[in-house]
Amino acid sequence: MSNVTAIVEAQATGLPATMDNAPAVVLAEAQKAAAALKDVIARKPKPVLINGEQYLEFEDWLTVGRFYGVTVGSEGEPEFVELAGVKGFKATAIAIRNGQTISRATAYCMSDEDRWTQAPTYQICSMAQTRANAKALRNVLSWVAVLAGYKPTPAEEMDGVDGHGAARTAATVPACQKCKTAKKVMPSKYAKGGVRPWYCLTCKATWGNAEEPPSEQQANDEPWEPEDEAGARG
């Protein structure tokens, strides 16, 4: 019996994708949007800077969305989840244009994240929603953000988000005065002497004033004795 090799010719099943607008027109519009976005961001008192790169917060992504008639909203209620023993919330959001869903994104916020370890449950739930909303917009509008010179990842997804849902710049998080690391430094949950100090999750040292930007003097301050957060109530 002879071996027969079947040869099947590929056939087109439809027309190739076509562009709605010429590239030059699309880029011209995007450049206008990018310039307008840069003007808005330049007025922010606290831009999000991480390792010298600037990131957009959810409100900034909403601005870009408005340029293109894109809105965003949650798809259902956030879902409580437990992954590998870690508790948190999962949320899904959709971006809509002209009544049609053009993007869908799911995001998480978990209690083992450095900035959310001591956060109330409702704030973790809210941040999951915020991340999902920003991510849904990012899926279709990141190219405009990049054209404007910003990083495409929403700021809320980056490390360094505090318990109030506001992303801090890397420069405003001081290194621990005892173990010399800023990786797990956050505002203390409790005030001491009327001041809410910085608190290091690594060595439990407390020092300075987390309500104000760190100063050169603060960098030279001696840390208070390491103590549990519960002991910082005084």
Which descriptors would you attach to this protein?
234 residues, alpha+beta, Enolase-like, domain 1, 2 domains, 4-stranded antiparallel sheet, 3-stranded antiparallel sheet, 26% helix, disordered C terminus
Please describe what this structure looks like.
The chain is of the alpha+beta class. It has 2 domains: 24-157, Enolase-like, domain 1 (2-Layer Sandwich); 173-234, no CATH class. The chain is built from 4 helices and 9 strands, in the order αββαββββαβββα. It has helices at 23-42, 58-67, 121-147, 216-220, and strands at 48-50, 53-55, 70-74, 79-83, 86-97, 100-110, 185-187, 198-200, 206-207. Strands 3, 4, 5 and 6 form a 4-stranded antiparallel sheet that branches. A 3-stranded antiparallel sheet has the order 7-8-9, with no helix packed on it. A two-stranded antiparallel ribbon has the order 1-2. A hairpin with a 2-residue loop joins strand 4 and strand 5 (86-97). Residues 161-171 and 213-234 have low confidence and may be disordered.
What's a quick, concise take on this entry?
The protein has 234 residues and is of the alpha+beta class. 26% of the residues lie in helices and 20% in strands.
List the helices and strands and how they pair.
Layout: H1 23-42, E1 48-50, E2 53-55, H2 58-67, E3 70-74, E4 79-83, E5 86-97, E6 100-110, H3 121-147, E7 185-187, E8 198-200, E9 206-207, H4 216-220
Antiparallel strand pairs: 1-2, 3-5, 4-5, 5-6, 7-8, 8-9
Helix pairs in contact: 1-2, 2-3
